Automatic annotation (TrEMBL):
Highest taxon, organism lineage: Bacteria
InterPro entries: 4CMD/NDH-1_regulator, AhpD-like, CMD-like
One Pfam family cited in the UniProt record for this chain: CMD
Source organism of this protein record: Draconibacterium aestuarii
Boundaries of every Carboxymuconolactone decarboxylase-like domain copy: 33-92, 159-233
A GO term for molecular function: peroxiredoxin activity
Protein name: Carboxymuconolactone decarboxylase family protein
SUPFAM superfamilies assigned to the protein according to its UniProt record, in alphabetical order: AhpD-like
Amino acid sequence: MKKIGLRILMVLMGVTCFYGSLFAQNNEELTMTLSAKQQSIIPIAALTAKGELQQLKPAISEGLEAGLTVNEIKEIMVHLYAYCGFPRSIRGLQTFMEVVDEREAKGMKDEAGVEASPLNDNRSKYDRGKANLETLIGRPLGETQSGYAAFAPVIEVFLKEHLFADIFDRDVLSFAERELVTVSVISAIGGAEPMLRSHLSICLNVGYTPEQLNEFVGILQSKVGKKESKAAQAVLNQILESRQEQ
């Protein structure tokens, strides 16, 4: 009887270990996929950038259903103006207003969400922006400018002081969420592959996995267009291949 009991105990322990391992693997697989909120950010940003407002409406509703707050979607559209301009950003906000009004008329109450926290940082905007950019790229920046920054130094100042300080310092969205907005917009407008390459690399630096970025491309294909996804996939493949060779 003791031997039988021991055998049963060993079998039960084996089953427990197996399902524990399976559970851990499933959890690991789940972390390799974008969350519902992250997935919904992609079409909202990309369709706003393209000015495809009729397709944007259901994308916004899906985002709200996925857990994005009103203020988070506002922030997505405010953020993307730095990459595709005020006209697209404002039209996106106007379309968002229509969606909110339509949902309220149906008795649907969407969560407002948090406002941006007051900034308590005595550094200059340039220094704050430089520090934020260094966090994003994962390395310190040199003092000598080159390329477009040397050719037109004022644009480098605007990037540091406004984009990476004024905008990135607003904590309604995380740095990782802002980068997802950014690569969605750049992919949608096209013709900016060097910038897309930089920001997809930043996505890897701020915690996205290669699997998640491939999923990002898949969402572009299904929600935005094959042309945009094909171009983004080509850039992503170059980045991942380059990293494997290092």
